[in-house]
Amino acid sequence: MTIVFLAFSVCGCILPGTEQFYRKRLRCAADLLNRHMSIGFTIPFVMVCRSQVADSRTIGLIIVCFILTSIITTISAYTLALPIQYLMVRWDRSFCGCSPLDMTVTQGVRPSVPQTTAKSIPEVKIMASVESMSNYGSESEESTDDEGPNPPQMKKVPSAAATSLPSYDWARRNPMLVICWLFTITIGLPLRYAAGNNAVFATGLLFALWLTMLAIQVDIKSSQQLRPWLRTLLAGIFNPVLWTSLGMMAYIFIDGAVSRRSLSGMLDTLQRDTTFSTFILRLVKHASSAVTTTGASSASPSIGAGDIAVSILNAGLVSWGLKLYEYRGHLVSRGGLTVFVVSLLLALGNMVLGPLFVHAIGLRPAGRELAFAARTVTIALGSPVMAVLGGDAGLNAAMVVLNGILFQMGLGFGVGRWLEKKLPWLPTATTTPTNDVEAQKVVKSTNQCTTKSDETNDPYTVAAGVTIGINSAAMGTAYLYETKSDAAPYSALSMMALGIMTVGIAAIKPLTVWLVERVAN
């Protein structure tokens, strides 16, 4: 991701057409990949079944420690990012030459939404969600003709889309979903029981479940029959990552019972720890060796459904370099500096204070305690940290995925907007018309000074992005990109910065040795 971002940034400085090339050729593909990259999070969640089941007391302690550390980290991220960014914005305004009077005019209102009339800057939507989506094949039933009945020759004839069955219309709007289910039933299922090929059936089932849950969530969000609160509730409940993971767990247990295979063996067929690029290289090598040798050849390389899903996730993470390039104006700003400062503080705090905190509560053994050192770090960067510290990698991956699911569901439920309304120190944006000419002049002067900087430095937007990126890693960031939130680039940058800084801190050998010795006592 970092390399892609730097490469496009350098090319943008050298080649004037880089921005146009990205928007015409790569932007749609990056958005599509970002839409489906979360399918990769279902596999670590399913692999939790491989971990040994602990006793009830240990499970209770893990849950308590997880809840407490999540609350502390969330509050710490927001309370650190908000005042730091406020100081950055005030310093930026002072440097810009705004008078103290200008500062008091917008006090109590988000800087990006000044108190102006109709020409004010639009309100920044931090926690925006997709409330309405396009409905294909629907026509308005309301008549706008007030001049009497229509003549016979002008009578409206219902279109084929309007008279089609709802099931056909739904299938027409989700062709890939129908193809995946047909592939799973007609090709994957026979191969599974005739040739013993689990990979084809599991891959088709995984993508069919994923696309089904996405389609259900989209239909719920676009439904006009449901009340807004019920629509938000159901859209949050039908989380695609959660239900796809549960569906694949059900497949693992059912198929294992039918074929009389162990749980470990079923999980091995789901994920073989082979990346897609490695699979292609092995396939080419196997084909070349089969041509050059006439004797018995080795078994052909194989790849599991989980490997394909994780490859999509990794590709999505790399493609975020394109999104960072798209929002580079947000990053090369005071907001970007705030992200790095907060990420450094929380990376150090999580690495040292996290294991010590759960150790004081009574969680044992040391491997489970050290899993909290990278509890909010994305799995790709958390795995090497667990290898250095000797932490429980399975528990760490489970907490990262569960934290992401909870944040994604919370955003879908509208928790951010609810907090904005309930907390008195989070002022909502309002427009206050005024007839005072002098006040309007002051506001206009303030707007000219702050418009460009505040669009990319709004403290509430930066704080929200940092909080979501640090606590929910890639899942929350993916949700922000899906909903076109202004906080998305800050979330992606904070996720990347937290992971890199955590890996860097873990490389400090005296610190890690001291930490392991403390939790081992």
Automatic annotation (TrEMBL):
GO terms for cellular component: membrane. The keyword Cytoplasm does not apply. Residues 139-148 have a biased composition (Acidic residues). It is found in: Membrane. Keywords: Membrane, Transmembrane, Transmembrane helix. Residues 136-159 are annotated as: Disordered. It is a multi-pass membrane protein. This is Uncharacterized protein. The lineage of its organism: Eukaryota, Fungi, Dikarya, Ascomycota, Pezizomycotina.
